[in-house]
Amino acid sequence: MVVSAGPFAAEARLLNKSARTRAKLMDAAAEVFAQEGFEAASVNEITRRADVANGTFYVHFKDKESIAAEVAARIGGDITGQIDQAMIDIDDGVERISFATRQFIQFGTHQPLWGWVLIRSGSYLPAMRRQMETHLYADLERCRLQGRISVAVDAFLVDAIMAVVFSALSARLRGDADEDAGSRASELVLNMIDVPQPLAHEVAWKAVELKELVLTVRSKGDRLTR
Questions:
Q1: Among the listed residues 49, 99, 62, 71, the one whose alpha carbon sits nearest the alpha carbon of residue 211
Q2: How far is Cα 92 from Cα 193, in angstroms, rounded to an integer?
Q3: Could you tell me the pTM of the whole model?
Q4: Which of 14, 68, 82, 223 is spaced 20 to 30 A from 202 at the CA atom?
C-alpha cells in the first residue's frame, strides 16, 4: 500500500522534486510508526509506502533514527504550538494544565494516525517528548509562582503526568474510554499536583471550547528542504 498524501507532502507540494520526495518519505514514516511502532518499523517498509527506492531514502536521511527525529520534531512542535495558541487567553496555571491535557487527548483521538504515532513511538522519539515536557514544565512553574501548588516540580512529576495523559489517549484510541477521558485524566493530573479536590474536579469538568487541531507541520521560517 502506497501512503496517501499527508501533511508533509501537502507542505512540499509547491517545492522541488527533492523536497517532495523527502516529504513523501516523512509521511510514510509517520504512518509506519503509527501502525507498527518505532522498533518494528523498517526503512524497507517506509520506502515501499512512499513508492521510492531504498537508495533514495539514504539520499535524504541517514537512517531510521534520523527520519524519526525530524518527524517527531515537526509533530511535537506543531501540537504544542497549536495548544499554546488555543489557550493564549488562559493565565491561570491550573486551568492551563487542565485545558492542555484535555486538548491533547482530543487532538490524538480525532487525528488517530498522529495519536498512534504518539502512543506507539513517543518513548523512542525524545525530541517530541522534550517539546511537550518543556511546555508542561512551564505551566507547572506558572502554577507554583502563582501560589496554586506547592509540590516539587521535577522530572519525576513530569514523567508521571505524561504517563497519565498518554494512557488516557491510548484508552480512547483503543475504544476503552469514552469522551470524558480528557476530564478524568485532567482531574487525576490536578490531584497529582495537590490541587484541592473540589477545585480539581471543578476545573477538570468545566465546559471549555476545545479546538479542532489539525497537524500542518508548518512553523515560522521552517522548510522541508535543508
A1: 99
A2: 14
A3: 0.86
A4: 82
- Dihedrals phi, psi of 146, to nearest 5 degrees: -80, 0
What tens-digit pLDDT sequence spans the chain (226 residues)?
A: 666 568 899 888 888 999 999 999 999 999 999 999 889 999 999 999 999 999 999 999 999 999 988 888 888 888 888 999 999 999 999 999 999 999 999 999 998 988 898 888 777 777 778 888 999 999 999 999 999 999 999 999 999 999 999 999 999 999 999 999 999 999 999 999 999 999 999 999 999 988 888 777 754 444 333 3
Domains and CATH numbers, the chain: 7-67 (1.10.10.60), 72-205 (1.10.357.10)
